[in-house]
Amino acid sequence: MRTQKALLLVTVTIALSFLCTFAFAGGHGATKGQEMVHIEGGEYVTIAGTIIDSHQEPVSEAVIEFSMNGHELLVVETAGNGHYLAEFMVEKGVMHTATFEMNTHKASFVTKIVEFSGHDFAEKGGHYYVTEEVALDRHLGAAFWISTVVFIIAYILIAFELLHRTIAAMLGAALMMTISYTIGTINPEFHIFSFHSAVASIDMNVVFLLMGMMIIVGVLKNTGVFQWCAYISYKVAKGRIFVLTILLMIFTAISSAFLDNVTTMLLLTGVAIEIALSCNLNPLHLLIPLVLASNVGGTSTLIGDPPNIMIGSYSGLTFMNFVVALAALCTVCMVVMFVFTKLWWGKAYEKAQASVANVEEFTAELKEKYKIYDPTLLTYGLIILGFTVFLFLSHGYWHMEVSIAALMGASVIFTVGLVTKKVDMLHLIEKDIEWPTLMFFIFLFILVGAVEEAGLLAVIADWILNMSKGNFWIAMTLILWVAAIMSAFVDNIPFTATMLPIVAYLTKVIPGSENTLWWALAVGACFGGNGTIIGASANVVTMGIAESKGYKISFIGFMKPAFPYMIISILIAQAWLMIFRPV
Fold first, then answer.
1. DSSP states of 203-256 as a string?
2. How far apart are CA 336 and CA 246, in angstroms?
3. Rounded-to-integer distance, Cα 564 and Cα 558, Å
4. DSSP state letters, 510-551
5. Is there a contact between 134 and 175 (Cβ–Cβ < 8 Å)?
6. Is the pLDDT score of 41 beyond 70?
7. What is the 3-state secondary structure (H, E, C) of 399-451?
């Protein structure tokens, strides 16, 4: 117990440190430079512009050295938006014969020198000014290879669970920053990124959204509503195991769409195991369809699956954009899943159904065991959850981040629970808020920010673009299938984070792509998570609980039914995106 509390304290301390750093880290929107030297009777000179890369993206923290007639004037650094501003004074009358040199350099980029003369400046009232946009080409140097190797090692540790994913991500992020500020200080070619860039790469919209939803679900869990829904499902099915499975799959998919597939499976797995055992059914024959349904259902909304949260936050797509584009596709895939479930486990369901002697008696037992034991808190909770969902649905109209809606709902429901003394604050903070998961996201964003800064994502984007030859159909197919296969064998969260800037770039350069490439990434990452036991966090959580209860399934055992269904769902998605091209 002491060890757990100590670990929690350390985790929370680190989390708060990062949040405070993020909140108070300033100056990213302004250029850094030397103070202008005043010359009596001199003339003012302003040089401004933007530094971009080969993908037309701004380059931050690029160092620009200005000199005139071979003598250094000043050094400035670009802001987060790639802008720079150099202001200085020169002696009167020298501008007409002056030659200026602008030397721009940054690790992982080729140094570029731009020369211009005083005749290139515009003049007004004794003030000379010029704007210059400079495009830097990528250079795959030491920073690129070090960040890539560290990223791949961290990826392997996460994917194959050789080290806890939070520790692996934290280790990789810390190592990259340490290298940047030790070896990178001696030799700038080893400088991967700055601490400020690391903090700026953290998407707090995702972190706060997950935190808010964890609190809401943690409070609702105290009412017994999820167990009661499982009882209602059995009652409605009237003891027919296949019908019960279908109802639970539908409930799981809907819950995953509006809550979170990991949280949904955490709440339902234990109940599903008990129902399966009572029906003399192997719990795995019920749990695998449920976890597949949770991943498909979570695909249909912005908040249902972490990859969608990340895509929505990065691209600016709203809750309703996801529903309109993906809900119908997910419904079709769910119907296909019902047929697949019947074909794969139908005989097991029939055998279990025949073993239940008295359906009515068993239903009465479930009714007595799975009650809603706090209707007052449930009433308050559902009202608050309904308001939160309303904000999710309309957040585009309010120009409000979804994390604000989640935090508002969480704070209100938390307050209600504390005032009515229905919720133990310390227990909820310790048990229901998954601090390691939140920390994993924070360090993961830093990892991805590092390889993006060093140029790995640009290399991948160029490869996909070259493979697709700028053709929309090829690009969409590549993104969909690469996302699906990769997400089946590695965690879809880091993969999605890696692909975000790539898809954003391809959306800009491929005509007619609009938002369809984003939907290809979302469907590929979420549906692909169904392929193997490590493909999605919900899979790992569900099978981990089952193993703790004595029902272990191997990697291949899970893959046998899951991977074929994943392929079927991706084929359906391919046809859907090609025919309807949702925007």
1. -HHHHHHHHHHHHHHHHHGGGTHHHHHHHHHHHHHTT-HHHHHHHHHHHHHHHH
2. 12
3. 11
4. STT-TTHHHHHHHHHHHHHTTSSTTSSHHHHHHHHHHHHTT-
5. no
6. no
7. CCCHHHHHHHHHHHHHHHHHHCCCCCHHHHHHHHCCHHHHHHHHHHHHHHHHH
Residue 542: which of 294, 274, 259 has the closest Cα? Answer: 294
pLDDT at position 51 over 90: yes
C-alpha 242/C-alpha 187 separation (Å) is 65
Q: Residues 462, 203, 82, CA angle at the centre, nearest 5°?
A: 55
pTM of structure: 0.78
Cβ contact 82:112 at 8 Å: no
- Angle between helices 435-454 and 456-468 in degrees, nearest 10: 70
The whole-number pLDDT of residue 3 equals 45
Residue 575 phi, psi (nearest 5): -65, -40
When the pLDDT of each residue in the chain is averaged and rounded to a whole number, the result is: 86
Q: What is the pLDDT of residue 39?
A: 67
Domains observed in the chain: 32-136 (2.60.130.10), 205-459+469-580 (no CATH)
Q: Is 93 left (phi over 0), alpha (psi -120 to 50) or beta?
A: left
Q: How many CB atoms lie within 10 A of CB 151?
A: 21
Q: Residue 284: what residue type?
A: L
Whole-angstrom Cα distance, residue 287 to residue 272?
Answer: 7
Q: Using an 8 Å Cβ cutoff, are 438 and 15 in contact?
A: yes
CA distance 133 to 156: 40
Which segment of 114-118, 342-346, 544-548 scores lowest on mean pLDDT? 544-548
User: Looking at residue 222, what is its pLDDT?
Assistant: 83
Distances in whole angstroms, Cα of residue 342 to Cα of each of 251, 280, 328, 349: 18, 18, 22, 9
Which pLDDT tens digit goes with each residue over 371-409?
Answer: 888 899 999 999 998 898 888 878 778 888 888 988 999
Distance CA 493, CA 500 (A): 11
Residue 85 carries which DSSP code? E
